[in-house]
Design brief:
By secondary structure, this protein is mainly α. It has helices at about 10-25, 30-45, 50-60, 65-70, 80-95, 105-110, 115-140. It is built from seven helices and no strands.
């Protein structure tokens, strides 16, 4: 199933992307919140490896089965806060990027819950998981084998 194994990927790719992951550990973005965004974006992109990884991370962090199972239809449920909804909407817009500029109402809804610095970090986090999804779609790492680090 794998096209390119972990060992065949130039180590610098993982080092550079890993440095960005470490950066997120030192921001005000909560890990569980970030994992929620990562899972939703991975679902949208059809990245089986990343869906497996981020759902396991969320379970480890205490996310409920109800919210995990409902994330793909978050707009239709009452299980997500207004803050989460604003970020999920933003994540979906950036993942389905078009040639249109981001609408003011979307940006304004983010400002109700996030500082400008946090919006910068959310934008980078969304871009980062989209990059990981695209790499995994090409490499085809086998889903199901991911283990959460303790």
């Amino acid at each position: 199933m794998e096209r390119i194994s972990y060992q065949e990927v130039p180590v610098e790719i993982f080092e550079k992307l890993g440095a960005i992951e470490v950066y997120f550990e030192n921001t005000s973005i909560d890990k569980q919140f970030l994992e929620l965004l990562r899972l939703r974006i991975s679902q949208m992109n059809g990245c089986a490896y990343c869906v497996d990884m981020h759902s396991k991370e969320l379970k480890h962090l205490g996310e409920t089965e109800l919210r995990l199972n409902s994330l793909c239809v978050w707009q239709e449920t009452p299980y997500f806060s207004k803050r989460e909804r604003a970020a999920l909407h933003f994540a979906e817009l950036l993942t389905r990027i078009t040639d249109e500029p981001l609408a003011d109402h979307c940006y304004d809804s983010l400002l109700a819950f996030f500082s400008k610095e946090e919006i910068c970090n959310l934008t980078l986090a969304i871009s980062q998981i989209n990059t990981w999804n695209r790499l995994m779609k090409v490499f085809r790492f086998t889903p199901g084998n991911y283990k959460v680090s303790e």
